[in-house]
TrEMBL record:
Its EC number is 3.6.1.8. GO terms for biological process: dATP catabolic process; dGTP catabolic process; dTTP catabolic process; dUTP catabolic process; response to stress; TTP catabolic process; UTP catabolic process. It comes from the Bacteria. Belongs to the nucleoside triphosphate pyrophosphohydrolase family. This is Nucleoside triphosphate pyrophosphohydrolase. The lineage of its organism: Bacteria, Pseudomonadati, Pseudomonadota, Alphaproteobacteria, Rhodobacterales. It catalyses: ATP + H2O = AMP + diphosphate + H(+). Residues 35-108, 174-237 form the NTP pyrophosphohydrolase MazG-like domain. It is an enzyme of class 3 (hydrolase). GO terms for molecular function: ATP diphosphatase activity. InterPro entries: MazG-like_dom, NTP-PPase_MazG-like_C, NTP-PPase_MazG-like_N, NTP_PyrPHydrolase_MazG.
């Protein structure tokens, strides 16, 4: 009988067995054996972002690899859960399957599919609210994971609060709040401690996330796009400097700013 770890006809069982052997206290990899949920969690977050990055770049071959890396994280946590007696892979897979069936009664039940995307979203939120109630999470903000990236968590907190009416009625009030928070940040910079300045800066970021929500935008996606644009244009500045036989350290702000404007203008050409 062939060794399962070399049997590509059973890909999921193969991966689970590979992880089991990596974690074997006697014959496994010392590094893998030493890990726990907390030490692996940062890698899980990193792999999720690398999946998003491959999608944004539309690199489908790399996406295949990144999805494998992310799948490995699930298998890793599941193996540790199995060792501790918490759960095994079958339970994890069945839990998400049960959840998907319960959250899609219009597909797997007798509810009508003839409803708008907005109504489906509303129904989804009602089902999730009922699930939280079953977990004794009665508070409006209960269940919003603390470990989420701060910008994403801000958006989720704001959406939860908005569901119970705690929200500005229009974008105008959000813009007014941004002006107010900006003014407070300037004042804090001149008179307050570093900790107080950080607090005011956080308030401004929180309101900016709220503005994105009111505009129907994903702040995380918008910031990723801004990061990509900055990277693209700065790399063009470096290329233009290199054509002059220079590096950024050989230049000054005035020159680089002029080249930035050039890169920006060239990017807008058809």
């Amino acid at each position: 009988m062939p060794d399962l770890i070399y049997d590509s006809t059973q890909p999921m069982a193969r991966l689970i067995e590979i992880m089991r052997r990596l974690r074997d206290p006697e014959t496994g990899c010392p590094w893998d054996v030493e890990q726990d949920f907390a030490s692996i969690a940062p890698y899980t977050i990193e792999e999720a972002y690398e999946v998003a990055d491959a999608i944004e770049r539309r690199d489908w071959n790399e996406l295949k690899g990144e999805l494998g890396d992310l799948l490995l994280q699930t298998v890793y946590h599941t193996q540790m859960g199995t060792e501790a007696g918490h759960f095994d892979f079958a339970e994890v897979a069945n839990a998400i399957s049960d959840k998907m069936i319960a959250r899609h009664p219009h597909v797997f039940g007798d509810e009508s599919r003839d409803k708008s995307a907005e109504q489906q979203t509303a129904d989804w939120e009602k089902i999730k609210a009922a699930e939280r109630a079953g977990k004794d999470q009665g508070g409006t903000l209960d269940g919003v994971a603390i470990g989420l990236p701060a910008l994403l968590r801000a958006l989720k907190l704001q959406k939860r609060a908005a569901r119970v009416g705690f929200d500005w009625p229009s974008t105008d009030e959000v813009l007014d709040k941004i002006v107010e928070e900006s003014r407070e940040l300037v004042e804090a910079r001149e008179t307050l401690s570093q900790a107080e300045i950080e607090e005011e800066f956080g308030d401004l970021l929180f309101v900016m996330a709220n503005l994105g929500r009111h505009l129907g935008l994903d702040p995380e996606s918008a910031l990723r796009a801004a990061n990509a644009k900055f990277t693209r244009r700065f790399e063009q500045v470096e290329a233009l400097l290199a054509a002059r036989g220079k590096r950024p350290t050989d230049s000054d702000l005035a020159e680089m700013d002029a080249l930035w404007d050039q890169a920006k203008a060239e990017e807008r050409l058809p």
